[in-house]
Structure formats: C-alpha cells, structure tokens
From TrEMBL:
Its cofactor is Mn(2+). It is an enzyme of class 3 (hydrolase). The keyword Ribonucleoprotein does not apply. The keyword Signal applies. It comes from the Bacteria. This is Xaa-Pro aminopeptidase.
Length: 485
C-alpha cells in the first residue's frame, strides 16, 4: 500500500512538473532588456534624485479573455502579469517590480505565470533590479514617505489597454461620472487617492507627460512592430478588395481581416473595425457592421491589428460591385488628387504647416481645373479645399495623428519640424452632406533621417488599381459563409 501511495505522489509531481515546464516564452523577445532599461533611465533623469515613480499595471481581465498589459507599464519593463506594480527609484536609479504571489491552482489550469516567487527568473529575463511580492509595496512607499524622496510620480492619464487610445480612455471616465447611478472614478484617480490617504506626506506629480514625450519618437524595434501591424492591415485591405461583392455583409470583411491578423500573430484589434458601406460611411466611426452591401454602394474600410502592443491605422475605399460609377469616379478622383498633394509633399525637416501650404497650393490648382456634374459636388470640393487652406495657416495643427502603442498615439505637436522616429497618418475627409457621401483615405508615414517613408503606398488607391484587384477571386468566395439557419 505504501509503495502504491508513493507511486501516486511521484506521478502527481511528474505531471505538475510537465505542466509548469511549458514551451511558452515568459518575456517578450520584441525588445531587449537594455531597451527597457534605457527608457527607465530617461524617467530617472526626468524625476530627479528626490523622487520616485510608481506605475500600476493592468488588473485581471473581465471574462474569458487574454490578459493584456497596459501600454505604459509594458513600455517601461515588458512584464505581462496582472496586478503588478513598478517602482522607479530616482536616487538609486533602480527599478523594482511588485508581483502577486504564485497561484499554483491557476497555473495548473492556465499555465505558468511569473510571480513574486520567480524573483531570480524575472530579474534574469527582464533586467529589472529587484522583484518583491505586491503585499510589500505599502512598506516600500512608507519608507519613501519618511525619507528624503518625498515626491511620488504616477500616471494621471487613463491607462491604455486593448484597443484603447487616450481619447477613448477619457470618454469612458466621463461617461461613468455623468451617470448619477455610477459615478465611478478612473482607476488612476483611485490609485492616486489611495497613495494620498495612506501616505499624506508624499507630494504626488503627474508622470504621464514624461512618458508621452518619450513615446513620440519610436526606436528601430518599435518601428519594426509598427511595420508588421501595418503589413497585416494592408493584406486585409487588399483581400477586402478581392472579396467584396454585392450581397455580402459588412461583418464578413471584419471576420476575414481577423483571420489574417490572428493567423499572423496579432494579439487583438487596434480598434473596432470601421467597415461602412453606402450612407454608413458618413458616420466616421460607424462600427455595427450589420448591413448587407448592394450593387452601386461605395465602401469604406478602416481596420488594423494590435501586433506586439503596436498599432497601425489604414483606410481604403472601393466600389462594392468592383467598378467605379460616374459619381464615384468624379468625386473620388478629385479627392485622390488632393490626397496625393498632401501625401507626397511630406518630408523630414519640414513643419506640418509648411507641408500643408505646399499641398493647399496644389489643391487650389486642381480645383480650378476640375468640373463637376452637380453644384453640390462642386460646393463640397470647394469647401474641402478651403478648409485645408485655412488649416495651413495655423502653426499648431498636425497633418493627421500619431500612431504607435495607441492608434491615436500620445506625444503632442508643438509646430516644429518632423524628425526621424515620428510615425503618423493623414486622413482628410471630403463630405457631401446632401447625399450623405463621405470619402476618406488613410496611410501610414514613418519619418526617417532621409525623408518620409509611406509604408502603405503599395495598397491600391488609384481607380485602375482598385478595379484590377477587385477582379481577382477572394477568400470569401472560396469559403462562403454557412447558410444553415
């Protein structure tokens, strides 16, 4: 009997060992520990010796979904564990991570997760100086509050999670506070209040502007990930041109794109798919995806993946039947000429205002040469050009928006020249309100030392190129949807 029991125990131990010995990476290979350390070094420089920074990671996700770390936490250390905290000591210039204790039952069900008990492994993988259990965080903050480091920096801005940009994070909090039956403060606000109430001697300052400024200029490894996300978005848009025919639903293109994204290693969506046919396109962030497309419709598709915490943002338009009709050819052709005037005037060393002035001059000449079949089309074209001319007179306005760890990335614009490492899109829109027509393209631009690289210009945008690609058979035709009810 003893031998039998010992055999059972030994078997259980062997099975547990196999469970924990998974062939799954526990730390990212997209960045080196040295790159994370260089980012933290900039934080030490910014906060000074008399301060420390404390950053709260993402909580456990709600529902059966994969955990995804917040952009800010990941940016500084790369550790993907729920309920983790990062403390950056300005005096010693050391980084400490606080992790939950091991949950062996959860690991047996879900696989290995880094914990406080893996301190040596975490330090080896990440280059972090110290690893402690999260229940020791209060003791560490207490030591700071009683010493010379009486200033604590933390994030005031909403943390960015899956498919979240700063603008959406702010909106979520505003909506909750406007609901008198909710009034939920942001997680950042609650964290700040907890620090203040528990350690009243600490002065709390905002770390968000420092990280925002750092994220504006992308490193070579960051640009590699952005290019991969953009490549997947481009493949999906070109496949949409092949697959789009009258009778398919908008959501089918969403599913097709998701297949391409996930087949190639994306961890989710950069944002919900904006797949809008006919009048749906007039609402720039329409994302219901429920309409069945009809012959004669014009389709807008704006969609990209989250690849390794980095995003893209690309848009193309196409006629659902594969052939531009007269009004589509007329308005899209005019818009495309204006769009290219912006796109191909982008150069490193120029300011957004200088680029806009060059583009505006070309647009005005194009408008003079153009003829329109309806007064409302001419009015729309004229309004579009005049609006761009006015925007070119402002020294503060950007060409589009930054893209990076968020689709609408942080960083701000001070009116200065474009410099290497900046990544952004342009997305001007032409509207004909009387007929609810909306036309918009969007491309990704990376500023380099030598100029500006348009990393999406191989996706057809000319009428002839779009029509040619739409003649090819698409995935949705090879694999039609299930019709059984």
């Amino acid at each position: 009997m003893r031998i039998f029991r010992c055999s059972i125990v030994l078997t259980s131990l062997l099975l547990a060992t196999r469970v924990f010995a998974q062939d799954v990476p526990l730390f990212t290979s997209d960045f080196t520990p040295e790159e994370f350390a260089a980012r933290r070094s900039k934080i030490y420089d910014a906060i000074g010796r008399n301060a420390f920074a404390v950053i709260q990671g993402a909580p456990s996700p709600t529902g059966y979904v994969k955990f995804r770390q917040t952009n800010e936490f990941y940016y500084l250390c790369g550790i993907e564990v729920p309920h983790a905290y990062l403390v950056l000591n300005g005096a010693s210039r050391t980084a400490s991570v606080y992790l939950p204790h091991r949950n062996e039952g959860r690991e047996r069900g879900e696989g290995k997760m880094l914990s406080a008990e893996d301190a040596d492994l975490v330090k080896k993988l990440s280059g972090i100086d110290n690893v402690y259990a999260s229940d020791l965080l209060a003791e560490q903050l207490g030591r700071f509050s009683n010493g010379s480091q009486d200033t604590a920096y933390t994030l005031f801005a909403p943390a960015e999670g899956l498919a979240v940009s700063r603008d959406l994070g702010i909106r979520v909090t505003a909506d909750a506070l406007a609901d008198q039956w909710d009034l939920t403060a942001s997680r950042e606000s609650r964290f700040i209040q907890l620090i203040k109430s528990r350690f009243p001697a600490l002065h709390i300052k905002n770390l968000s502007p420092t990280i925002d400024k750092m994220r504006l200029i992308k490193s070579p490894d960051e640009i590699t990930l952005i290019k991969k996300a953009t490549r997947l978005s481009s493949l999906a848009l070109m496949e949409a041109m092949r697959s789009t025919v009258p009778g398919i639903s908008e959501y089918e293109l969403d599913g097709m794109a998701k297949y391409i994204y996930h087949r190639n290693g994306a961890q989710g969506d950069a944002y919900y798919s904006l797949i809008a046919s006919a009048e749906n396109a007039f609402y720039p962030h329409y994302h219901e995806g429920k309409r069945v497309m009809k012959d004669g419709d014009f389709l807008l598709m704006d969609y990209a993946p989250d690849y390794g915490y980095y995003m893209s943002d690309v848009t193309r338009m196409m006629p659902v039947n594969g052939k531009f009709n007269s009004w589509q050819r007329e308005l899209y052709g005019f818009y495309l000429g204006c769009y290219k005037a912006i796109l191909y005037n982008i150069k490193a060393g120029l300011t957004a205002q200088q680029i806009k002035k060059l583009a505006a001059a070309e647009m005005e000449q194009l408008l003079k040469r153009s003829k329109f079949s309806k007064p409302i089309y001419e009015n729309a074209a004229r309004s579009f050009v005049q609006s761009y001319v006015r925007s070119s007179e402002s020294a503060r306005g950007m060409l589009g928006h930054w893209v990076g760890m968020a689709t609408h990335d942080v960083g701000g614009y001070d009116g200065g020249p474009l410099v290497a490492g900046m990544v952004f899109t342009i997305e001007p829109a032409l509207r004909v309100p009387e007929e609810k027509i909306y036309i918009r393209l969007e491309d990704m631009i990376i500023v380099t030392e030598k100029g500006a690289e348009i990393i999406t210009d191989y996706i057809p945008m000319d009428i002839e190129g779009i029509e040619k690609l739409m003649k090819e058979e698409g995935i949705l035709q090879k694999y039609p949807k299930d019709t059984v009810k």
